[in-house]
Design goal:
CATH topology of the largest domain: endopeptidase fold (from Nostoc punctiforme)
Number of strands: 25
Number of domains: 3
Largest sheet: 6 strands, antiparallel
Radius of gyration: 27 Å
Strand order of the largest sheet: 18-25-19-20-21-24
Shape: globular
CATH architecture of the largest domain: Alpha-Beta Complex
Number of helices: 11
Helix content: 25-40%
Distance between the termini: 104 Å
Length: 493
């Protein structure tokens, strides 16, 4: 009897354990099934909520401007504006009891090499202290190992989604070749011969700050063909060059730079007869029959013009010879290519036509993958008119003194009323984190932006919508609402 009772007890216990296991397994299956049924991230629609289809056209907005074809700044005024930007000293002031919303960009730029005051590499003296360069490279080395204020981590991930361990970071530091920097450096001068990426470290391998956003934190900016550079140093293997270029101090692949004396580079850079790419990217060919594609030149980039007629255009195209020196050959561009002889007149009509050519183009952090981020889109837009500004949103928003600071404590309706008083189409809005163009008031009475947006939003039902492209955006929509920008800057004298 005792053994029977024990056996029954064991059987009962076994049933309980089996029941628990079944519950666990069913719970796991249900959880996996539920996860599979969760809403997956979707692309945002071509027309964002609150936007009407007709608004996705430059002509819609041009028709709303009474002064669409009025020249806002002449070529001489733009030259003066550029000189002011190049020499501008910025001070920071608290607004409405809060820190200047543009200050963060200046703090980060002092760390990573981007510059507010644009550099003219060809005006720099031949000699430079090696200590300055060692200090810059040393700062970059520190940033690899130290937690970053904006991200709270020193972690980076490569293109395999593997974390950079100490060995990988040490290899990057070694590649910077800092120990060989002499006490005095003799600058070498060069010109960019491809659409180049300026890197914080001498590598094309990305340094993502997380596995979700895929923003390459090793990327500083991009640089169009034809830009001058001053070369200060080279990597351990000679495959990257540490340069001073108009927007930054950073590393560019050696194959993207050709060396020459300053006079030869000036002849190309300062040639007053040039052809500008007036759309996202324009193909250049190596033969007049357009069979041999050579490269793209990108939105607002320029090449010296040799001739142009109904059969097409010929341009001077710089290239790097095998020994690294500058060579110049002829490039051929089709007659129907979207190009412009010289810069465009700075009018609202032209601003709208140009920015809408970028509508739908994909997002690229700091020029990552030869694409543009928010500030990159605004920078190349302004360059279509010869206006030169720095890389960060704050640099662009501080370029002009025509600024309005929005009081963060007033209501959304009050903010909308204040923004509606500002000049549309040539007013840029944002803060250190983002920048957009104020399109102004539509026929429905609402305000709209157009901007390059690298994030997304959630629908009412919780579906995540990924944007990641240039879009028109109603200021009433939470994606980038009237509550988002702090600074409104009108780009005019």
């Amino acid at each position: 009897m005792i053994f029977n009772e024990i056996a029954k007890g064991w059987l009962s216990m076994a049933r309980i354990v089996r029941t628990i296991l079944i519950v666990i397994v069913l719970t796991m299956i249900f959880t996996l099934f539920s996860s599979a049924q969760e809403k997956k991230a979707m692309h945002a629609p071509d027309t964002l909520p609150g936007v009407e289809t007709e608004m996705l056209n430059a002509e819609y907005w041009i028709s709303l401007q009474n002064d669409a074809d009025t020249v806002i700044m002449s070529a001489d005024e733009i030259a003066s504006f550029n000189e002011e930007v190049r020499n501008k000293q910025v001070t920071f002031t608290d607004y409405y009891g809060k820190e200047d919303p543009l200050k963060a960009n200046y703090i980060s730029s002092s760390n990573n090499g981007l510059v507010m005051n644009l550099i003219d590499p060809l005006d720099l003296p031949e000699a430079v202290s090696g200590e300055e360069v060692r200090a810059r490279l040393g700062k970059n080395s520190e940033l690899l190992y130290s937690p970053r204020p904006l991200y709270g981590s020193s972690d980076f991930y490569d293109n395999r989604n593997a974390i950079y361990d100490k060995k990988m970071k040490d290899e990057l530091v070694a590649k910077m070749n800092t120990d060989t920097v002499p006490s005095t450096i003799k600058r070498r001068y060069g010109i960019v011969v491809n659409h180049a990426l300026v890197r914080q470290y001498p590598t094309s391998v990305p340094g993502y700050s997380d596995l979700k956003g895929r923003l390459d934190r090793f990327q500083l900016t991009d640089l169009c063909i034809g830009n001058p550079v001053a070369v200060l140093h080279e990597s351990l293997e000679g495959d990257y060059l540490f340069v001073e270029c108009p927007l930054a101090r950073g590393w560019i692949a050696a194959t993207d730079i050709a060396f020459a004396d300053r006079t030869a580079i000036r002849e190309l850079v300062d040639d007053n007869s040039f052809l500008m790419a007036a759309s996202d990217r324009v193909p250049v060919y190596g033969d007049p029959e357009y069979n041999n594609f050579v490269r793209f030149f990108y939105f607002s980039a320029t090449l010296p013009l040799v001739s142009g007629d109904a059969d097409g255009y010929t341009v001077k195209m710089p290239y790097r010879r095998q020994n690294g020196s500058l060579g110049v050959t002829t490039g051929y561009i089709k007659p129907d290519a979207d190009v412009q002889t010289g810069y465009l007149a700075y009018t609202k009509s032209n601003v709208l036509k140009q920015i809408f050519k970028l509508l739908g183009t994909h997002y690229g952090w700091h020029g990552q993958d030869n694409k543009r981020d928010c500030a990159g889109a605004m920078r190349v837009l302004l360059r279509c008119f010869g206006i030169q500004v720095g890389k960060y949103p704050a640099f662009i928003l501080n370029a002009s003194d025509n600024q309005y600071r929005m009081n963060p404590d007033i209501s959304a309706d009050e903010k909308t009323a204040e923004a509606a008083k500002l000049e549309p189409v040539i007013t840029m809005v944002g803060n250190s984190g983002h920048i957009a163009l104020l399109l102004g008031k539509a026929r429905n009475g609402k305000l709209y932006y157009i901007h390059q947006a690298g994030w997304g939003y959630r629908d009412e039902d919780g579906t995540q919508r990924i944007v990641g492209r240039v879009v028109v955006n109603c200021t009433e929509h939470r994606f980038y609402s009237i509550n988002s920008p702090n600074v409104f800057t009108t780009i005019r004298p």
